[in-house]
Design a protein that fits this description.
The structure is a homodimer of 192-residue chains. The first copy, chain A, has 192 residues and is mainly α. Chain A has one domain: Tetracycline Repressor, domain 2 (Orthogonal Bundle), CATH 1.10.357.10. Helices cover 70% and strands 0% of the residues of chain A. Chain A has eight helices and no strands. In chain A, helix 1 packs across helix 2 and helix 5 packs across helix 6. The longest helix of chain A has 24 residues. In chain A, 35% of the residues are buried. The first copy, chain A, binds a DNA duplex (30 and 30 nucleotides) through helix 2.
Chain lengths: 192, 192
DNA sequence: CATGAATGTGAACACGTGTACACTTTAGGC
DNA sequence: GCCTAAAGTGTACACGTGTTCACATTCATG
């Protein structure tokens, strides 16, 4: 698995690397691959699963819902950015395969993102600031927030690790999220 | 070029299809490929160029800056969505290669998006509603808007063409953009 | 209509690919 | 310390790959 991640990180994407190259990178003979996965698709799906399993755990442990809304934006952006940096290869893989992968992979990633969006909507619902927002609109807003955070991680992965210009990226994302939350204050859900 | 687009649309992505398969799809012998492009990279870059050239033209012709801000959101979302649907294969290609493509391709796409963002920022600056926003913040806002529209097109491409549930997607994107613009009303640029 | 450029052809090359199969090595629980 | 399941090995096959080169065809324009 790690060999595959390394190759995908330095090459274009998963479909561009072969079973034999992965095996070579892992220091193992090609046929040994089959001892662990039925085929390349299975490997890819496992990598995606792993990524989101641990991401869900991080986000769950953080218990964001019990924080004051003030400062939550900065905190969660930093938490997320930290996690992305710590799992660079894994996230690079997911970002690349989100649109370029197999249908199975794309669906898996999509489903996980939907789950994250739902979780965020549920968290936001607990804040007074969102009490005037309808259920549907809560999901629309969460969707926008999730997309903004995804874009942030794509960008963090695009600059090289020790460049440290991530700060500018994070500040921009924070600004955008604050802007969104400002809009929420004036928002009126027709069917609230 | 069209043969390549068809294959990429039905397969995973560009790096997964071979020169020989493109030639076969085009009804031509493999070596004939070299009469038109130096290699596959050149083909890919040309496709990206073409996509954005015509997109820039559409957006330029629309002269959005001369419209009232009211109704502009709905109009531009519809214009954009229409264009994406009319150039489904082209956009599918760009979306897939945005992160999974060659470095050259990725850079080309990235640069084009930056151009679009700058153009939007310049357009927004003409509206009274944005007169209290600093130059930098204008770019941050435009960035958020562009990302939201990109996400919309990714989703339009994900549902099959004659499904006609695009409307729901467009409504969501419109809501999100209106939310952003609501935030702008309360936004205060510190260095305005 | 002729001529020259643009486009398409076919054979050949060296090499990378996924996977099957029988075999050997490694490691952990009784 | 043995023995069994897991992991790794080496060989072999049929096939797809990019690119080369000399040759054939098409087509526009003088």
């Amino acid at each position: 698995m790690h060999a595959a991640l390394e190759l995908v990180s330095s090459e274009a994407n998963f479909s561009a690397i072969s079973l034999r190259r992965i095996a070579r990178q892992a220091g193992v003979v090609p046929t040994a691959f089959y001892r662990h996965f039925e085929d390349l698709d299975a490997l890819g799906l496992t990598l995606i699963e792993d990524t989101f399993r641990s991401l869900r755990q991080i986000l769950g442990d953080a218990a964001l819902a019990s924080m004051p809304l003030k400062g939550l934006v900065r905190y969660s952006v930093e938490l997320f950015a930290h996690y992305v940096r710590d799992n660079r290869l894994l996230f690079q893989f997911v970002v690349k395969e989100r649109f370029a992968g197999t249908v199975a992979m794309r669906e898996a990633i999509h489903n996980e993102i939907v789950l994250l969006t739902n979780a965020l909507a549920a968290d936001l619902a607990r804040f007074d600031e969102f009490s005037h927002i309808s259920q549907d609109d809560l999901r629309v807003i969460s969707d926008l927030v999730v997309n903004t955070v995804i874009t942030l991680s794509e960008r963090i992965l695009d600059v090289d690790p020790d460049n440290a210009e991530d700060d500018a990226l994070m500040l921009r994302a924070e600004k955008q999220l604050r802007l969104i939350f400002m809009g929420v204050g004036r928002w009126e859900s027709r069917s609230a």
